[in-house]
Write a structure and sequence with these properties.
With 335 residues, the protein is an alpha+beta fold. Helix content is 44%, strand content 13%. It has 2 domains: 146 residues, Beta-Lactamase (2-Layer Sandwich), CATH 3.30.450; 117 residues, no CATH class.
Length: 335
C-alpha cells in the first residue's frame, strides 16, 4: 500500500509539473498577425499631400518667431472612408525615423491585445492595471512591465554575448510582429524610462544610445487607423484599445496632459464639444508628438500624426496644425 501511495503521489506531482510547464509554454511566444490579415487600403493622394503640406507650411509660418524649421516637423494624414475600402493619405516627411517617446506605447498595446486574443497571455487584474496605466497615464513603469510580458524578457544585469543574443532576439518579438504586417522603418524594442536605462537595457543600446525606439509618422498613422477601423484585432480587443485611447478635452484636469495639451487643445479653443477624439501623445525634453483619431458629427473620420523635435515646450504648434487640417478637409468637401 505504501509503495502504491508513493507511486500515485509521484504521478500526481509529475502531472502537476507537466501541466504547469504546459501552461507556461502556451503563454507568450511569437506574436501572430490576425488570420487573413491584409495591409490596409491606403492610397497616397496628391491632393492630400498638398492639403497637408500647405497646412504645415502655414503653421510653420505662424510659429516662425519660435524658430520652427521644416526639418523640425513630420506629419501624416489618413482619411478613412465609410466603407473601409479606400483610405487616402498625405504626408510631410512621413518616412523620417524619429524617436517617438511615449507614442511607442500604441505599438505595445496593439501587440498585447493580439497576444490576449490568441490566448498567449492570460489577463489578470495586474495586467489590466498595467495596460491602462501605460496608455491612459502614459506610465513608463507600466510600459516596462508590459514589454516584459510581451517579450518574456526582463531588465537586470548585463549578460555574456551568447546569452545576450538570445535575450535580444526575444526582445525583438514586437518588431517581428509588425514587420510581418508590412510595417517599415520602425524599431519598437526598448522600454521607456523617466531617467535612463541600466544594465542589460543599456547593453541592448550598445552603451551608445543605439538601437533606440524609432517610428515614422506614416507607421503611427497606419496603426492608429487600423485600430480605429478594427483591422488589427477582434471587436472586443479593438473596443478595449479605443476605450483606453478615448480623450475628453472638456473634462476637468491638468493643462499639460493628453486630452488638453495636444490635439485636444484645438477642440477646446474652438468649443467643438461634439467632435470625438482618441489619441496617444509623447513628449520628452526634446520632442513633442501626438497621434490623434478624430470623428466629426458630419461623418468625417481621419488620423493626424504630428511629430515635432527641438520644440518640446511649444504647446501651440500641434493644435494649430490640427485646426488647419480640419478646416482644409471640410473646405475640400470631406465628410
Amino acid at each position: 500500500m505504501e509503495r502504491s501511495s508513493k507511486l500515485i503521489a509521484a504521478l500526481a506531482l509529475f502531472l502537476l509539473i507537466s501541466t504547469a510547464f504546459g501552461q507556461k509554454a502556451k503563454s507568450g511566444g511569437e506574436i501572430i498577425k490576425p488570420d487573413g490579415y491584409k495591409a490596409p487600403p491606403i492610397t497616397v493622394s496628391a491632393a492630400m499631400n498638398e492639403l497637408l503640406a500647405k497646412s504645415v507650411e502655414a503653421t510653420l509660418d505662424e510659429f516662425k518667431a519660435k524658430n520652427f524649421a521644416p526639418q523640425d516637423v513630420s506629419a501624416t494624414l489618413i482619411v478613412l472612408d465609410d466603407k473601409g475600402t479606400e483610405w487616402t493619405k498625405g504626408e510631410v516627411r512621413g518616412s523620417e525615423r524619429i524617436y517617438p517617446a511615449s507614442v511607442v506605447k500604441l505599438f505595445y498595446m496593439a501587440a498585447l491585445e493580439r497576444q490576449i486574443e490568441d490566448g498567449r497571455v492570460t489577463v489578470t487584474p495586474e495586467l489590466r492595471r498595467g495596460l491602462r496605466d501605460m496608455i491612459v497615464d502614459s506610465s513608463n513603469e507600466a510600459t516596462q512591465y508590459i514589454l516584459d510580458v510581451l517579450t518574456d524578457t526582463s531588465s537586470g544585469a548585463e549578460l555574456p554575448e551568447k546569452q545576450f543574443e538570445a535575450w535580444q532576439y526575444k526582445r525583438n518579438r514586437v518588431n517581428r510582429f509588425f514587420a510581418s504586417m508590412g510595417y517599415e522603418k520602425i524599431n519598437v524594442n526598448q522600454k521607456t524610462f523617466c531617467e535612463d536605462a541600466y544594465g542589460i537595457e543599456q547593453q541592448s543600446r550598445n552603451y551608445k544610445g543605439e538601437n533606440r525606439n524609432m517610428l515614422t509618422t506614416n507607421a503611427v498613422a497606419r496603426l492608429l487607423a487600423e485600430i480605429a477601423a478594427g483591422r488589427i484585432a477582434n471587436k472586443d480587443r479593438t473596443a478595449e484599445m479605443m476605450t483606453l485611447l478615448r480623450r475628453d478635452p472638456f473634462a476637468k484636469g491638468a493643462d499639460d496632459d493628453q486630452a488638453h495639451a495636444f490635439t485636444g487643445r484645438m477642440l477646446i479653443d474652438r468649443k467643438l464639444a461634439d467632435v470625438e477624439l482618441w489619441s496617444k501623445a509623447g513628449w520628452t525634453s526634446k520632442t513633442r508628438h501626438d497621434a490623434a483619431y478624430i470623428e466629426t458629427p458630419d461623418g468625417l473620420r481621419f488620423v493626424l500624426v504630428t511629430f515635432t523635435v527641438d520644440h518640446a515646450n511649444e504647446t501651440g504648434f500641434i493644435p494649430a496644425l490640427a485646426g488647419r487640417v480640419l478646416d482644409a478637409l471640410k473646405a475640400s468637401g470631406h465628410h
